[in-house]
Amino acid sequence: MHKTSWMTSDILGRLNANAGMLLLRSLWEYCPEHMFIVRVEGPADFVIEAMNSTRQAMLGDETACIGKRIEQLLPPPMCHGVIANLHRCAECGSPIRYEEKGGYVDRHGACQQGHWQTLLVPITNQEGRVTHLFGVSRDMSQLPEQPVGASPESKEFERRVHERTAELVAANEHLTHLATHDCLTDTYNRRYLQELAELELRRASRYEQSLCLMMLDIDYFKKINDSEGHLAGDEALRCVAHTILATVRECDLVGRYGGDEFLILMPETTADGAREIAERLRRTLTQTSRFTVSIGIACLAPTDHFVVDLIHRADTMLLQAKRNGRNRIECAA
Ligand SMILES: Nc1nc2c(ncn2[C@@H]2O[C@H](COP(=O)(O)OP(=O)(O)OP(=O)(O)O)[C@@H](O)[C@H]2O)c(=O)[nH]1
Fold first, then answer.
1. Is the dihedral of CA 54, 58, 59, 61 positive or negative?
2. What's the pTM?
3. Atom 32, ligand 1: which residue's CA is nearest?
4. Ligand 1: which atom is nearest the Cα of residue 230?
5. ipTM above 0.85, yes or no
6. Which CATH number fits domain 16-142: 3.30.565.10, 3.40.50.2000, 2.60.120.700, 3.30.450.20?
7. Is the CB of 238 under 6 A from ligand 1?
């Protein structure tokens, strides 16, 4: 059997007239918010036509309110602000929200200060003219008071939250660094460098910019390990990495590809520019350390779709540099 569901956005459309009236009546009578209907008499002329019991409890019963103009019910300047908003809603013909604060006279004739948040909804006749406005006001002064000054306990709690957040941010940054860098040389690790390089390749291809990749290998590195031990080998790797980072531009990407091989990706760099940087690097290492390096360079070609295409050519050039005697540079372009 088909069951009627209330879980629909068109609930009013599914109710018959009687059920609809009952729903509206329940809302009107039991809703704790202040509800009212005003009749639009003119651009700045609004007459109270109905008020729910919550509103009457504040301003006075029906006989004291119904049929009165806004300025007869609320003192200035409060009435001016309310009338301006009623006018705005009638003019634009769509719901508006506003907040109002000010003094009013309660049902016992005493002056009170109020603070409301109001939603106004226009009601139109068959010709589409706004004849009435329906309002729902929330009494903000009835909401629990916000603490003016935080208690010592909440201040301490807040301080600890800040402290803990800072610790977590620092731990997160440290983990990210570990996941993206080579722990020995502090250059990018192979996986992350390749990720970044793919983005650079796509950018360079799209904007038809030049891009070069350098692959560098320490000459006779195995001998250092074998004759002086692996710690000396590690030190050699750190020394070369440090020299690379000090020589290339900040926007160049430097990473350890494996063993004693490094990759340097140089955005917006032509073959001549890459050769110049490679030569500077080779010379600096020869002058400042006991290590020499061989370097292979590949430049972005229109047929390159992935970084491995560039890596492959740079690797071939590096092999050629080794074969041609080491401590030298070979470029594919
Ligand atoms: N100390 C150290 N050695 C490493 C590390 N990773 C790889 N190696 C060593 O690096 C050496 C790689 O040497 P190769 O590049 O094959 O040979 P090479 O002696 O540099 O010779 P050429 O490249 O032909 O000049 C091997 O001995 C590896 O064990 C590392 O993290 N630390």
1. positive
2. 0.58
3. 234
4. 1
5. yes
6. 3.30.450.20
7. no
